[in-house]
Amino acid sequence: MRARDFVRRHLLHNLGLKLTALLLAIGLWLAVASSPSSEVALSVPIILRSMPRDVEVSSEKIPEAQVRIRGPERVMRRLQASDVHVEIDVSGMKPGERTFDLTRAISVPDRLEVAQVVPSEVHLVFDIRSVRSVPVKPRVIGTFAAGYGIGQVESDPPNVELIGPKKQVDAIESAVTDPIDVTGVLDRVTVTRPAYVSDPLIQVTNPQPVRITITMQKEKPKT
């Protein structure tokens, strides 16, 4: 193919449309480039990516990152918190303490830049994931009828399974239930209540209601 034919077929074909598209692209770029700069602060959750199955975070709380984003005002108007990501790769993580640089963990859309991130670092503690069975301890409240006391308390199931960081799981002696009011009960009462632990890092693996039967009995008179 001769050079003249090549130019005619590939460069001059639909030349008007190509020039129009080029001018529109240049105009859009100039509009964005000349747009005044602005900043916005966003609260972004910190994502731990590729967490090993046998490891848990034992830090009390993973803070959110406060990220200040700077860029052209027209682009910033369309910015949403979901467009900004703070991700830490924890693949291969072992139990222990680790500090991560958040300034290297942030991704933002094109034409935008990170002006500031608070905190700039996050310190986390990791522990082995532990599973353990503990007894259920029903929480009984109320005013007993005169001359009566608690004779027997039965839980079905009697134990629940917990999962979480080993240090926290090992410190739990029992799971408690929501209160059970036995005011005025003279014989027996059966209720269902969920069992839980107060530590937010620990979960009940099968959070089904526990069936609790409380039997009252008459106290023996004091001699």
Strand tally is: 16
* End-to-end distance: 121 Å
Beta-strand percent range: over 45%
Q: How many structural domains does the protein architecture include?
A: 3
**Main sheet overview:** 7 strands, mixed
Count of individual helical segments: 4
Question: Uncertain spans, ≥5 residues at pLDDT below 50?
Answer: none
Radius of gyration: 32 Å
Q: What would you call the quaternary organization? A: single chain
Structural class: alpha+beta
Q: Give the CA-based shape.
A: elongated
Protein model, in words:
The protein has helices spanning 3-11, 15-34, 73-76, 166-170, and strands at 37-44, 46-49, 55-57, 65-72, 85-89, 96-101, 106-107, 113-118, 121-141, 148-156, 159-165, 175-181, 188-193, 195-196, 203-204, 210-218. With 223 residues, it is of the alpha+beta class. It has 3 domains: 3-32; 36-119, RNA Polymerase Alpha Subunit, Chain A, domain 2, CATH 2.170.120.30; 130-218, RNA Polymerase Alpha Subunit, Chain A, domain 2 (Beta Complex), CATH 2.170.120.40. It is elongated and about 105 Å long.
